[in-house]
Amino acid sequence: xxxxxxxxxxxxxxxxxxxxxxxxxxxxxxxxxxxxxxxxxxxxxxxxxxxxxxxxxxxxxxxxxxxxxxxxxxxxxxxxxxxxxxxxxxxxxxxxxxxxxxxxxxxxxxxxxxxxxxxxxxxxxxxxxxxxxxxxxxxxxxxxxxxxxxxxxxxxxxxxxxxxxxxxxxxxxxxxxxxxxxxxxxxxxxxxxxxxxxxxxxxxxxxxxxxxxxxxxxxxxxxxxxxxxxxxxxxxxxxxxxxxxxxxxxxxxxxxxxxxxxxxxxxxxxxxxxxxxxxxxxxxxxxxxxxxxxxxxxxxxxxxxxxxxxxxxxxxxxxxxxxxxxxxxxxxxxxxxxxxxxxxxxxxxxxxxxxxxxxxxxxxxxxxxxxxxxxxxxxxxxxxxxxxxxxxxxxxxxxxxxxxxxxxxxxxxxxxxxxxxxxxxxxxxxxxxxxxxxxxxxxxxxxxxxxxxxxxxxxxxxxxxxxxxxxxxxxxxxxxxxxxxxxxxxxxxxxxxxxxxxxxxxxxxxxxxxxxxxxxxxxxxxxxxxxxxxxxxxxxxxxxxxxxxxxxxxxxxxxxxxxxxxxxxxxxxxxxxxxxxxxxxxxxxxxxxxxxxxxxxxxxxxxxxxxxxxxxxxxxxxxxxxxxxxxxxxxxxxxxxxxxxxxxxxxxxxxxx
Length: 657
Hints:
Elements: H1 9-30, H2 36-60, H3 69-94, H4 102-107, E1 119-125, H5 130-141, E2 148-154, H6 159-168, E3 171-173, H7 181-194, E4 202-207, E5 210-212, H8 216-221, E6 229-233, E7 237-238, H9 243-247, H10 259-272, E8 282-285, H11 286-292, H12 302-312, E9 316-319, E10 325-327, H13 333-351, H14 365-398, H15 407-428, H16 435-443, H17 446-458, E11 478-479, H18 481-503, H19 515-536, E12 538-539, E13 552-557, E14 562-568, E15 574-578, E16 587-592, E17 596-606, E18 609-615, H20 618-630, H21 642-653
Helix pairs in contact: 1-15, 2-3, 2-15, 3-14, 5-20, 13-14, 13-17, 14-17, 14-18, 14-19, 16-19, 18-19
């Protein structure tokens, strides 16, 4: 290691970390996030530091070579870490570029002229409740594009849904079986549409819980000006907090787990021409689907496979990074993990399918790279997260050397690499990468996802499609004991190991040299991550979260006088009035823009007004749905609010909420 003058080895190591920190303070003033050269330089430095770290790990940190448990454990950890690092290097290359297609959509708006293209909007459903489905159906009907047809594809074969669709004036379809799951359901609808006198020009796909914004069709169709474009994908936004946000109390200060992928990774993939379909919130050219013969059914993630299949026959997929739909994130941890395990399983099925990276097909090299990159993500990220918890225990309980390293070298090689990566990713993603919370989001599903990865790769066929449950009663506290158990066991073992190392010389091993300091810091970090993960397994009660928070002027007529007041915290059932106090007996009408006069009565007084219960009729309720979900900007949090997040976490971890 290079030594700086007049300081020792440890001082030299710290100086390198301080140097990276100093550069980090300057970067926001000189880096253009959209400039490929700037991004390239940042990630070239990251790759150089990664390779430097890898060389050091391979050459200087292994336990002595031999037929020993120490060497076997040390080599196993190194192998898993290096494979994971390869996946990271692939992601670094992808993120060197980024593409924003908003100017292209602006320039080509209305390219079709006076005759609007015909669009079929497919809403696939299986077991969702009416409250969930009604939002989506009403939102689809409210789209500004007039030449459209809304179709509800009911794999649950429910008569009440058929009757509701008839009342709403939308087309209802069901089939005799559920073969092919969601892909089969959509293929059945495509076959029926092909029998119509006039077939659609484009097909939009929405999950049963995703509501389109009113400009969804017009904005996506603008990118089809290019005759080679077969599919346009848009990001998914969520009007409720995902389980980790909600259970840790950071829904207003920390983005949902998918924001980094949709806001940054997909835009970078699009710059390489490898953005992929994510199912809902996408629009596909009818001719492309006909050329393909419908959606592929070899994988439970038919969306990603659709992209590959389209590319293999010459159709391109592109990505429009605009908030054009919003939906319901999984509300429970079990549903959250089930969904991600299904994505993992589906990707492994693709890797072993006719669209796999080593199969004979029409895929470009970059498409094959795209699949390999995804395989590396699922195969390494989650197993490595488990290993990071398990391997320090081998040292504390069995004196097995997993890392044989000097502390100055650890700081110099790992510290500088890790800090640079955190700085670069947060600079380019506007502060979305928070180490501990990122680790928690990966660890909480690591066991089932790792199982799905290896199961899917070794046995790709014969797995049922797992539907992500939405809606239901979430009004009580639920402790996910089975999910929590392994983390509680790991936390207990880690604490016992630390205590044994402190109180007993028998466990004060020195065989690993400075490596024991690495394991000590590692274990303390694991204590924090495991503790937060356990807290995240306690599911807190939920209420309707999609509210109109922006104050607006409304008129409340209590039968005595009509007065203008401020309206806040508007939901489909309640609202808060500010500016005049009303007694609990007050009753009248509330006039809201674009909704009309709603009957309302005061349910409680507040310091500066009152909370009222709304009694909307069916038409007014539909107008409220449109106001909440089909208008305005993206819901949720787009980037980390660090001070607010620290406050929210402190409140949650102190159990004061």
